[in-house]
Every structure is written in C-alpha cells, then in structure tokens.
Amino acid sequence: MASPTRWGEPQPGVLQRLAARVRAVIPGAESGAARRGLGPLPLALRRGELAQTYLAAAGEADHRRAGAAATTAMERAASAGDWWPADVWGHRALWHFERAGMELAAARAARHIGDVRIAAGDPASARRYFAEAISESRDLGAEREEGLAALGMGRAAMQLSDVTTARRLAQIALDLLERCGAPAEEVAGARELRGEEKEVGG
C-alpha cells in the first residue's frame, strides 16, 4: 500500500476555529502570533500573478481578498491534478475566511480540502474536513453546502469500502440537495452514490 501523502499545511482544530471567531467579532484581537500561525507560503508557490495577489492581500490582512485568491489558486491546482499545492492553498483559504468571519466560505473551503484529498487518494484524512463542513453548514442552515459535504463524506466512505455508510450519507445528501433545489448534476451524483434499491422476492 502506498504511503499517505505528506500534506503541507497545519490542520485547523476546534480551538483555532474558536479563536478565529473571537477575532472576527472583537476589533484588534488579531495578534502578530496569530497571523504567524499559518506560516509562510512555500517558496514553490510564490511564483505568478495570482500568488502575488494573494501575498499582497495577506500582507495587508485583507482576509476576504486573500481567501478569494487562495481559493482560485486551489481550484487551478486541483484542475491540473497538483494535489499538494491545491491542499496548501485550500488551507490558506480556510484560514483567511475564518478570520474574516466568512463562515459559509470557510465551510466550503473545508469541503474543497476534503475533495482534494479524496482525489489524491487519501479518503481517510478527507473525512475530518467533510465533517467540519457538515457541522458548520448545518449551524448556518446552508442545506446545499451541507448536502455536498455529506456527499463528499459518502464518497470517502465508499473509497474506504464502507458501503453501508456511503449509501446512508448519499441518502442524506440527496434529501438535502433535492430540498434546496440544487443543480441537477449534484442531485444525480448523490443518486449515483446511493445506488438503486432492488426488491427481493416476488
């Protein structure tokens, strides 16, 4: 079995998330130590106009703009199958959105990190990000985001050969996505994962 991918960014934790919420509501509560918590952007990712846009926004503590730039960089890296850079950028997006008090964007960023890790073949570590996204989305009443995160968690379970859990999560995702009028392809993805129930006997 291949060794697990060594991911490059620290994992967000409950205390870190709580501290981010405090900083979002108390002016001036963002300390220098907290800003250093993410660490410097790896040198390999500092090239290009998008990286410079991110670094400028991060340097100004413009968390909304930095999070948006990091999200775009994550999406580009993921499209190219560059999983480590996509994961690094995803964590940066999550970090900045938390500090901006952008809870829905943060939940979405956590889900994207889970998607990246599944695509990279690491469904076990993907689950904690989907769980975080589900919890945050539920608190916000964001049914579509909760449904997509449940679907991601179900795909992770399927890759780990836990078919029963995968199908149960797919049904939860399907219910949420249908209720909120999600796009047809998202609903179809949940149906596909759930599979078709077949009657036994005559």
In CATH terms, the superfamily is Tetratricopeptide repeat domain
The tally of domains stands at 1
Distance between the termini: 44 Å
Helix and strand content put the structural class at: mainly alpha
**CATH C-level name:** Mainly Alpha
Sum up the structure in keywords.
202 residues, single chain, mainly alpha, Serine Threonine Protein Phosphatase 5, Tetratricopeptide repeat, globular, 70% helix
Quick take:
The protein contains 10 helices and no strands.
Topology:
Layout: H1 14-25, H2 32-36, H3 49-59, H4 63-79, H5 83-99, H6 103-119, H7 123-140, H8 143-159, H9 163-179, H10 184-194
Helix pairs in contact: 3-4, 4-5, 5-6, 6-7, 6-8, 7-8, 8-9, 8-10, 9-10
Give an overview in words.
- The protein is mainly α and 202 residues long.
- The protein has one domain (14-21, 46-194): Tetratricopeptide repeat domain (Serine Threonine Protein Phosphatase 5, Tetratricopeptide repeat).
- Helix content is 70%, strand content 0%.
- It has 10 helices and no strands.
- It has helices at 14-25, 32-36, 49-59, 63-79, 83-99, 103-119, 123-140, 143-159, 163-179, 184-194.
- Helix 6 runs antiparallel to helix 7 (123-140), helix 6 (103-119) runs parallel beside helix 8 (143-159) and helix 8 runs antiparallel to helix 9 (163-179).
- The chain is globular, with a radius of gyration of 18 Å.
